[in-house]
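Worked Example 4.2. Read the sequence first, then its structure tokens.
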Amino acid sequence: MIPFISTSAALAPVQVHKREPQPTQLSAFANTGATPWLYSALGQIRDIEENHNRLVLGIGDFRDVGETAKTTRQLLSLVDMVDLPVPLVSPVSGGAMSITWSMGAREVKFSLFPDRQALFYRYMDDEPIDDGGVVNLGDPNSARDPLKWMINPTT
């Protein structure tokens, strides 16, 4: 038998802590009219994730893009530029992804890999203009600078 002890009810003061909402990575892009390219890019990433069980014989293995999709979204969160065209997001064999922005003769391609590595390449008239570079996902300018080159015809 378990003994029970009964006591009278007691009122104790309750401390209520007000929580401030935390902004999400993409909160700067809440206005769909200001950044139509972002919603298209996120939709393309989602489509790739939903169709990730693809092994295309003779072309490559397009499976397991989960970690790369997270890195791709993180890269997009660094790009707070509203005057960009809609990019093309594509799966790459081995679980990688590619984001390509084109404007006139200029093009910027980002390659993102499952190990969280991100690279960029700049093209003029479909020819590489340099050896590209590494995108530091902790530094927004490392993603913005190649895109600024693309939209500014004087550089």
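Now turn to a second chain, presented in exactly the same format:
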Amino acid sequence: MEAAPVPNPSEEPAFDVLGEPFLRSVDKEAPRPKLPVGVADALGTLVVVLLMEMSESVKWLAVYPLSQWRHLVATEVARGPAPGTDVQARLRRLARNAARAEVSQDGRLSLPRHLAARCGIGRQVTCYPRLDRLEIEAGNTLPEGPDDPKDLALLSEFMVPLR
């Protein structure tokens, strides 16, 4: 069996599906949010879902197209060992929080249950399209627009006139 070619870390694959964040309802028994057509098409049918943790209370899922995941791993390998660690340890840490997933023909993303549970995903998720991945957070975390009059009024209280 022939090994898959190793991606060149300097050639970043295209994903580029920037767009507005969107909310999706999720069935608790099977976390499968329905994605917009453009996002589902850009991800492809096989993806890698990675649990990202900033702290114990700040977690989200990063969904990478398979080509983008391969690029991420190749970049980690190309970086070489960081002081005090080796490449294998970094790759094991990366893989420990990752799992393969599928996007069905109707655009439903099957989130791995163990990662969805660790991320706290319940009945609703907020999805953020990024340049190289789709980020998914538990709940309704859509930011209010910057043009919201309440926000502008609050900000104006703290503004100091320029002289």
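Notes for the reader: The first strand starts at residue 22 and ends at 25. Helices lie at 37-43, 66-79, 87-96, 113-119, 149-158.
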